[in-house]
Amino acid sequence: MNKDVLEFVTFCIGAVSRRLKLSRHEVYDRLKRSGILDDYIIPCYDILHTFGSGYIVDDLTDFMKKKGVLVQ
């Protein structure tokens, strides 16, 4: 993973954490456990990083709900 991807992953975790009012550690665990981190965020970095932060957070929280790691 290069520096740009790592910074994007960090941004995603922080942004979702703020939206959901969960710790960054908890968001990381949920993204990792569900496969969203390794199977979606990292491989799709080239496309995802071009979208605005609101879209990214909405997309990730929707995906977390579909994967069953977020109930809201």
Q: What is the total tally of β strands?
A: 0
Number of domains: 1
Mean of residue pLDDT? 96
Fraction of helical residues: over 70%
Sheet-strand content, in percent, reads under 5%
Order of SSEs, N→C?
HHHHH
- Please give the radius of gyration in angstroms: 11 Å
Count up the helices.
5
Largest sheet: none
Can you characterise this structure?
The protein has helices at residues 3-20, 24-34, 36-41, 45-48, 53-67. The protein has 72 residues and is mainly α. It is globular.
Keywords, please?
single chain; 72 residues; mainly alpha; 5 helices; 75% helix
Quick summary of this structure?
The protein is mainly alpha-helical and 72 residues long. The protein contains 5 helices and no strands.
What is the topology?
Layout: H1 3-20, H2 24-34, H3 36-41, H4 45-48, H5 53-67
Helix pairs in contact: 1-2, 1-5
